[in-house]
UniProtKB/TrEMBL annotation:
This is Peptidase M20 domain-containing protein 2. GO terms for biological process: folic acid catabolic process. Belongs to the peptidase M20A family. It comes from Paenibacillus chitinolyticus. Keywords: Hydrolase. Pfam families: M20_dimer. Residues 173-257 form the Peptidase M20 dimerisation domain. InterPro entries: Amidohydrolase, Bact_exopeptidase_dim_dom, Peptidase_M20/M20A_hydrolases, Peptidase_M20_dimer, Xaa-Arg_dipeptidase.
Amino acid sequence: MKERIYNTIDFHTPEFQAISTYIGQNPELGHEEFLACARLIEELERHDFTVERAVLDIPTAFIGVYDSGKPGPTVAFLAEYDALPELGHACGHHLICMMSIGAAVGLKSVIDETGGVIRVYGTPAEETKGAKVPMAAAGLFDDVDFALMAHPYYTYERSGESLALDAIQFEYFGKAAHAAASPYEGVNALDAVLMLFNSVNALRQQLRSDVRIHGIITEGGQAANIIPDYAVAQFYVRSSSRAYTNEVAAKVLKCAEGAALQTGCTLTTSNYEYSYDELNTNETLSAVFNRNLSSAGITEDMIQTGKDHGSLDLGNVSLHCPTIHPYMKVIEEKHLLHTPEFRDLAMKQRALDGMILAAKMLAATAYDVITDPALLAEIKAEFERTRSAR
């Protein structure tokens, strides 16, 4: 049956690679991925998936379903297809979406015999307001037995960890005045932002090494001779756990409040993007994926230990069902994600071929779990242990 899965993916490889190339050549930002969304839905429907559009009223979100009509597990493949501002597909999401859809189409070739349900979740805006967050909160993964996706990279890497994240905006409101004639009549909102940055920098010494705090000033005044009456800073606050990220975010808020108090400004805070939870890799499920890699000639010594690469909205999914997020080698050169070099190399044939291998490995992993009830029980038992520990 695995040979049938692989042969099915091979047969459809030209169209899968053409779709990936089309999405790569037409990058769209999060929640604006109308071209990509339409093309992916078209492909799923062509393979007899029933597609629900605009899930949770998110215009570019979808769920494609193929139900065998026989009892069996429900597997979720996660598709991402948003691009980065200015850079385009420098994170390889044009490959990710077709890894998952290719895997779903491959698995469909045997699912009528094995039993079970295949779902493809079209999840926009992973880079910002990732749709997996409201999907998970709405319980759309609660009846999923396990969830799979893979990410392109310059090496093979086991599914590992990610950082929990809060995206916090601080708005300071002061009072404008002529900076030369009557500065004493003003209340300087920009001073408050600068004090916030200095306070955060002082805070860093008392934080764990896994913490990342980084921010920018998005509003800082209109002219040098006017005391700024409005200034805005946006920060990402991250750590390896949701619990500690909450603690750090509360300390950063105290820094912001102190800056308002010192300058006489008023302060408003908000979350300008969704909060992401940390990824909890299901190690039993991850081992199944790695065994399939080994069968494909990717030996253990070629697969690096999983690392964190920032934050993923998949972390929120991993709180609701067993989940993995391995990295697949699609380029030969050592270039990091979110760079022009990775973007350009991820459009070449080597990357498209790596995408197809990833689709096969995802489908093979799903097949192994679907056809082995004892293995699925072990995966679920690990998930429950991890959830209880949290």
